[in-house]
Predict the 3D structure of the following.
Amino acid sequence: MVMERISAELVECDVHTDELLINMGPQHPSTHGVLRLVLRTDGELILDVIPHIGYLHRSAEKLGESLAARQWLPYTDRLDYLASMNMNLGWSLVVEKLLGLEVTPRAACVRVMVAELNRIASHLVAAGCYGLDLGSFTPYMYAFREREKILDLFEAACGARLTYSYIVPGGVTADLPNGWLDRCAAFLDQFDPTIDDLHAVLTSNDIFIRRTAGVGVLDMKTAIDYGCTGPVLRGSGVDWDLRRDGEPWYARMYEGYAFDVIAPVHGHYRNEAAYPAAPRAAVVGDCWHRFFVRMIEVVQSMAIIRQAMDRYRGTDASMGQPIKATQKLPRGEAYLETEAPKGQMGFMVIGNDTKTPHRVRARSSCFCNLSVAPELCRGGLVADVPAVIGSLDLVLGEIDR
Amino acid sequence: MDAEAIFRELQKRHPKWTLAVDAAAIDPWIEVAPEGILDACRTLRDEPGLVFDMLHCISGVDYLAAADRKDAGSGPRVEVLYHLSSMIHRHRIVLRVRLPRWKDDVPGELPELASVSGVWRTADWHEREVYDLVGVRFLGHPDPRRILCPDDWQGHPLRKDYEVPDEYHGIRVK
Amino acid sequence: MTTFLLQWLNPPWLAYALAALVHCGLLLALVVGSVAVCNWAERKIAGRVQDRLGPARVGGRFGWLQSPADGLKLLCKEDLIPADADSLLFRFAPYISLGASFAAFVAIPLSNDWVAQRLDAAAFFVLAVAGLEVFGVILGGYASGSKWSLFGAMREAAQVVSYEVPLGLCVLVPVMVAGTMNLVKIGNMQEGWFTNWLIFHDPFTFITFWVYLTCAVASVNRAPFDLAEAESELVAGFLTEYSGFRWSAFFMAEYGSMLAVSFLAAILFFGGWNGPVPIARWFGLMQENGPLAGYLGNLLGLANMLAKGSLGIVVMMWIRWTLPRLRIDQVLTTCLKYCIPLAAATFVGAMAWTFVARGGLNAGNDDATTRPGVATGGVQGEVAMTKSQ
């Protein structure tokens, strides 16, 4: 596998037309919400892309200043609404960090399980929608069929299918119901082979490879410079995952779990023989690798869930006590980033000895990941814009807050 | 490298601008004078022992009421926090800059701070957000526009004395 | 039929007009009926490919009323013309597409001699007329006054115009092997067992068919070549501003063209109305055994054609629901770098083959031209129905 080879086809263009400004969005099928991109094009060639965001701005941070920490939790559900568990987790951990609150081992196990399940669900949406962005409708249905089953599991655990508010500061709202672990295990066994379907219709499909390999190449330096995180950063070959490298307050939750951080370091994935081979045309940091990283992370998440289920069975039944809405937040600042499916989701809370925080801050991973989009789209074709935007896996609820 | 060591390293370079350190805080921080933020950031990024290659977040915080301020003696202010980390050395630090709420205490005149978007590109959009929501003008920013609110929005919503306008282009807001 | 009417009706123009009307009505019924079935089939096939049921409730079972329901919905929709649009062209464009796609059926025989207008240059006529469909798309996209529509129109122009070349070359290969452009003759030549089909004539025609398939899918704008529509990139491309009946006219044109290219493939490569096994001959359902036998044989032929045409459409749907879309540069590369050279090479190869290895079909060729049931005339040629009267 020669990854360093530059295979991005240069589009030769000696015929120029008048520049055309086109609004892609805020209503457009492939901007994943209400993102507006102003494209400056020369024919089909993209000269520049200017993103405009804020169409979904709901003043989440301002609202947080007049709500108790527990009361703001449902607002985190609505940030990255495709991975609400991970949003809940991020906020709960940062509040716990400020309060110095420990959760019980069983609650930590439940958190790991639901957070990883939601990572799978989020990556499934990313993979399915990416197929849609490239004009293939079928993988979307395959992905959503499996995601439904994960939502069924969440519904059994907390009663909600999208905005869970399940992980709360101090623990989780309730222990898992009887039989949930068996259902979860049955789901994982059933889900495992269906990943190959997605590999067949997307990862190793020739047209898919032509559309993604060598397109939107994001090199390691630029990725770090722009603050890109998550699969976008790892797709560029940076071996960095907060579940392993993060602050102890977060990373200790994953201590003792065996899993790989998926990144094409020097062009090679760890244990890569187990997965479909990277195509020759793929360059580290291109759309194909960003997509592939997500697909393999799903497998790693499944391994983590299986280990968490075993660990859960060995814990005592103590679930700890979630904080109340009357809980006063001490003076001080706490900032914590967690590895959400889309990237590193950071929350900051500043307490002032009252119930309501003085300031709430949400550092959005998609916000930074989107900011690099103009760099990736420039010089490509109009059709590459959905390919790049889709590979960044954006959720506008999180960007606009 | 822990916060004390980072502080010493930074102080060696910029003794005038490196003001204080709190290594015992939940997230250890270093206070930098507003005039020195750009130089401090360059040092933090480029010094071989520091290499803060990633800027995570820039947040603006408005301290208006005396009850909200930790040191009740100090006056109202706006603070800008920079969360930095190094992937190579695996350490992190928070930079803190204190600004007056208004430039020269003239209400309506936004405080000014040098932009670090030339040091980390992450700062580009984050500084736009701080400008938009908290009201800090970043000098030398390549594209100093609002980012979340519409371009013609009045006021900076995360200021503590912000009054929500009654309407925006005929749309009821309050 | 014209001769039959000429015997009874005076003045003659009345007979011609009536004959034209009847043919037109029959073809319209065929095209509209097939669009309705295709619409339902597309949903059903998409459903099955995607591991779901597809329409299941409209009309009680199998969602068989889905197409009429869709049609009704489209007719009830508001007919919008954007303020920036060129109103006349905008309204006119869908009918150009629909007209072109429909007109191709005039020269396509549906069974031995069952053709609205026998043309010696039928293969040429079908290609030429079906190629006009692109004008509707370009006009519609250009007249919409929307940048996305304009993009769609430009892509359509670049794509379809370049794919006309290999498509023409691919049609030329069977035409050359058969030695005629008359589709009735080409069909009759392939009578007998399926080994007589032109696709099995020589290795070159076999390859030609696959190139034809690629080019046909591209020229009717079906995925993975649906760049003019390109939902995820261009909103809906040239269709962005269309709604209601005008939109459905484009829709019908697309399905009409799919059926036309499938029929053309059936005649050029797959024996046309001749089944894989010569059942008609075994049961004596031939013209020479009397009008009734000929009529029944033609009915069987029609069933053959419809089956082959449907198969072509099903394959196109299957492809659409499986593959992602290509990019415009890749679409043009596929055409210019692969399809055209391949088609040209098979053309030369087939020419050499027929020159060196004479026999087989060419023996049949002489048969066909000398068979009494087949006239040689072009415009004067009569429809088989007339003879069976």
About this structure: Chain A has one domain: 19-400. The CA atoms of residues 36 and 369 of chain A lie 15 Å apart.
